[in-house]
Fold:
Amino acid sequence: MFGYIAINKAEMKFKDYEMYHSYYCGLCKCLKERYGIRGQVTLSFDMTFLIVLLTGLYEPLEEKEVVNCIAHPLEKHIARTNEFTEYAAAVNLILSYYKCKDDWEDDHKRKSYIAAKLLTPKMKDICRQYPSKVAAVSSNLRRLSVLERENEQNIDLVAGLFGNIMAELFAYRKDEWEASLRKIGFFLGKFIYLMDAFTDVAEDIRTHNYNPFKDAYQNDSQFSENCRKVMTLMMAECSREFEKLPILLHTDILRNILYSGVWQRYTDNTNSDSGEEK
Structure:
């Protein structure tokens, strides 16, 4: 469930893209410094959104550095970091670790088993630093795994468990903005779970893996459109709560993601279809 909270680059101003990319590079740099190459390979766009959101809300002091990276060795980039970068790096590792564990336990993917083992030493420090975050991710994923094995068909229930995870991770501190950040995380988490199920449903049917959309995909002639309506409700709640926050910094970037970027995988999926409604 990674890579859904992305930008729509085609609709983004160049200066906003450069700013967004500087936070992405900062997260990459932080992952490498804190957790080594093993941590760096877990990098995803999702936690860059969390950094930009918390930065826009709290406007912390930042550091800028010109860096080279493995992906673009001949180009220099600005890496922008602040107090939220380290937190997002830890969250990124937590989610990656438990995803690998889940993949091993559910599908016995040896690659995931090895990845989880490699990340285990790094997780010990994170567990000490963020015990409540780790506990929330672990307990909700454990419950979700049980429901998936039982072939639970209540979509709101299973998606809500991933929503609980994101709600806890988005609540950086206990203050007047905690409730709004939790709601943003909750509905964004439900959206991510539903989008992941939507994009994987055909493959899950082929491989006999769990997916709450299987019946609808096979029997609903308006499957894609009905899924979009449900996911739109999730993003409407998420965006409504976002608009309540007193954010002036990076609002164009955040709105690009919330109103457009998160739909890129849906668009790619439906465009790659044969044209027939499922």
In short: The mean pLDDT is 90. Residues 130-248 form one domain. The chain has eleven helices and two strands.
